[in-house]
Design goal:
This protein has about 525 residues and is α+β, with helices and mostly antiparallel strands. The protein is built from 15 helices and 22 strands. Strands 9-8-17-18-19-16-20 form a seven-stranded mixed beta sheet, with helices on both faces. A five-stranded parallel beta sheet has the order 11-3-2-15-21, covered by helices on one side. The chain has a three-stranded antiparallel beta sheet with strand order 6-10-7. The relative contact order is 0.20.
Length: about 525
């Protein structure tokens, strides 16, 4: 077992919090239960790892031929005959992703498979640019320094803001922030604050679109939670790491070997069709080859996969739970365009650049600056490997037009790329990320279900913890494993998160004045949504 048990936080932040686990034995002693983990993404791999390490017999099902879910990679052949790895795009491994890093430390305790990027600049088409390189990591100095250093915060804009409406950001607690702000869109919340338009594009819209959602659709509670996780609630900072090699080589192949050492049966290219309660209290998991009995089941699929399995499993859960699953929504499509060019961008260009105001282009990554496979190709050919992302693309958009537009916007951002010839291109369209819409929080499924032998994991899950994106997937996987281990009297994995409340008593006191049930200083009526005050 590799979870930290000495009580020390796993990162730089001394205020990181541990989610306690119930005491129990280290491992299953006799007659180990057999568990099906359905889904081989981060959530499923996290659950399978904890269960297998505790002596549970695990069978891991994955519908794709490879592991990793939305962080997977697969082999392709370029026109020049060389082999490469395609993926669903760049992912940032932030330092406050404690659960994800704990999972990866199973195969690399020093996390040598990751390398840090020197900066995370954000650029608007107007010419304004923000950077986090010189911003301190500790709140609230990080927010103050960011505002002071950013050209997007002008004095007249700051004077026009409504700081009282922004107070909920100072004391974000997972359950309470959703009670306060889940009925408000991120866009409406920022309107209420009168957040400067230019800073809004860079400081908030870039983050909200990383949820693959238009800010007009995204819950303001999710935006506020993200602001807490990455900024005001954590001293880990906003710089991040990336894998040195493609995802399969760096992450998932080593983890698959780790699981094999614990006897896990990994069944890739095996989609599960249904899960039926068995007559003896177990469950029958059906795939194309037949049915197999299990003592417990972890459902670790994306939104569409979970809904499909539940719809074909009429005996699974109860009606309210099945209705919650059916009400889940998927975010708009997104595009990842990877280009193999015959020449590199200028050496001064950042490794990764977040963009706003360039149409559908959301960021540009020069992959050959850090991923060794791409670096080797660039060294051999004199070229470069560049990746472009377009998040939250309208479903009715013509795909060919969007792909061309993305390349044209790259030429606007880095004009020297106009001279580069595209040696190879891969355009990956997907539409399987969860949407966190206004008012959707209470309808999301939790880890536990009406059946104690069935649990759910994934970034679609409501955890009531300050986690998001890949970290929510890993955390929910640990929590799903813990829920099953608790039934068998085995101690689970300690889960660490950023603090689940504002860091400073004074700021918390200010924020409390804007919560429902309190009156403003002028004795005004109670406010239903403090962010719109």
């Amino acid at each position: 077992m590799n979870g930290r048990v000495d009580g020390r936080p796993p990162g730089r932040d001394r205020r990181a919090q541990a989610v306690p686990v119930r005491p129990g034995t280290d491992r299953v002693r006799d007659d180990p239960p057999v568990t099906a983990v359905i889904g081989g993404g981060i959530a499923g791999l996290a659950a399978a790892t904890v269960l297998a390490e505790r002596g549970v017999r695990v069978v891991l099902y994955e519908r794709e031929p490879f592991l990793g879910g939305r962080v997977a990679g697969w082999p392709i052949t370029l026109p020049d005959g060389s082999r490469a790895t395609m993926s669903r795009g760049f992912h940032a491994f932030f330092r406050q992703y404690y659960s994800l890093r704990a999972l990866l430390r199973r195969v690399d305790p020093a996390l040598g498979m990751l390398t840090s990027l020197p900066d995370y600049p954000l650029q608007h088409s107007s010419g304004l640019c923000d950077s986090f390189r010189h911003v301190p990591r500790t709140p609230p100095w990080n927010a103050l320094a960011f505002a002071a250093l950013s050209p997007t915060f002008r004095l007249r804009d700051l004077l026009a803001m409504r700081p009282g409406s922004a107070l909920p950001l100072l004391d974000v607690r997972t359950r309470r922030v959703h009670e306060d702000l889940d009925q408000v869109s991120a866009d409406a919340f920022l309107d209420a604050v009168r957040f400067p338009r230019a800073a809004r594009h860079l400081a908030f819209e870039v983050f909200s679109r990383s949820f693959f959602a238009d800010p007009r659709q995204l819950s303001a509670a999710e935006m506020a939670l993200m602001f807490h996780i990455y900024f005001l609630g954590s001293s880990e900072g906003l710089l991040f790491d990336v894998p040195r090699e493609p995802f399969p080589t760096a992450l998932w192949e080593p983890l698959a070997c780790h699981l094999a050492r614990y006897g896990t049966e990994v069944r890739t290219a095996t989609p599960v069709e249904a899960v039926h309660p068995g007559p003896d209290g177990g469950h029958l998991v059906a795939d194309a080859t037949g049915s197999r009995r299990f003592d417990a089941v972890v459902l670790a699929m994306d939104t569409g996969g979970l809904q499909a399995v539940v719809s074909r499993s009429p005996g699974l859960g109860d009606s309210p739970w099945r209705d919650r699953v059916a009400r889940l929504r998927t975010a708009s499509p997104f595009l990842v365009s990877r280009l193999w060019l015959d020449s590199p961008p200028e050496p001064t260009r950042p490794h990764f650049l977040g963009t706003s105001g360039y149409g559908t282009l959301d960021n540009v990554s020069i992959l050959s600056r850090w991923e060794c496979e791409a670096t080797r190709w660039a060294a051999r050919t004199g070229g470069s490997v560049v990746e472009l992302h377009a998040y939250a693309v309208p479903p009715t958009t013509d795909r060919d037009t969007t792909e061309r537009h993305l390349v044209e916007q790259m030429h606007r951002v880095y004009p020297e790329t106009r001279r580069a010839r595209v040696v190879a291109a891969r355009h990956e369209w997907r539409a399987d990320c969860p949407l966190f819409p206004v008012g959707g929080y209470t309808h999301r499924p939790t880890v536990r279900t009406p059946d104690p032998a069935v649990v759910v994991a994934g970034d679609l899950v409501r955890t009531d913890l300050p986690v998001a994106l890949m970290e929510r997937a890993a955390t929910s996987g640990f929590l799903a494993a813990n829920a099953l281990l608790e039934r068998w009297g085995v101690r689970g994995e300690i889960v660490w998160t950023v603090p689940d409340r504002g860091r400073y008593a004074l700021l918390r006191a200010l924020a409390s004045r804007r919560r429902p049930g309190r009156r403003d200083r002028g004795g005004g009526a109670e406010r239903k949504h403090p962010g719109l005050g």
